[in-house]
Write a structure and sequence with these properties.
The chain is an alpha+beta fold. The chain contains five helices and eight strands. It has one domain: 3-Layer(aba) Sandwich (Chemotaxis protein chec), CATH 3.40.1550.20.
Length: 142
């Protein structure tokens, strides 16, 4: 179960270092093999390969009306492998799709990660914090 936020910097080749706290789990559960694809909120999703395979099966099972979403998720998926120093390469196409140039925010979302351009994430989070909470939180206590 991945959780927490990490502020990261991509190097000139588009590689990012996976935070140390996640490397051991990714090495043990997926042999460092990951899959990256587009997310509908203009960020990227990063899955450990076993979780990706479960997600891919769910996407493949969708009806024909969801064909464009199949293209978005599956057609843009890129398999990557952590190198010996825990870095992964984010393809230029995926970086461009999420607007990621250098500064990024990696969020643990349970079974996968979201990778955001830092500035875009800050803007979206600020909007969400100013908006009314969704009804699903009405009986939730803090």
């Amino acid at each position: 179960m991945f959780q927490g936020a990490s502020s990261l910097t991509l190097d000139a080749k588009g590689r990012l270092s996976v935070p140390t706290r996640h490397r051991d789990v990714l090495s043990a559960t997926a042999s460092g093999q990951l899959t990256i694809t587009k997310h509908p909120h203009n960020c990227l999703m990063i899955f450990a390969r076993p979780e990706w395979e479960k997600f891919r099966e769910r996407i493949n099972a969708l009806p024909a009306q969801a064909h464009w979403w199949k293209r978005i998720f599956l057609g843009n998926a890129a398999d990557v492998e952590m190198d010996g120093t825990g870095r992964i390469l984010i393809s230029p196409e995926l970086r461009a799709a999420a607007g990621i140039t250098k500064s990024a925010m990696l969020l643990g979302m349970g079974d996968y990660f979201e990778l955001w351009d830092s500035a875009r994430y800050a803007e979206e989070e600020a909007k969400a914090m100013q908006a009314q909470m969704p009804d699903v939180f009405k009986d939730f206590s803090f």
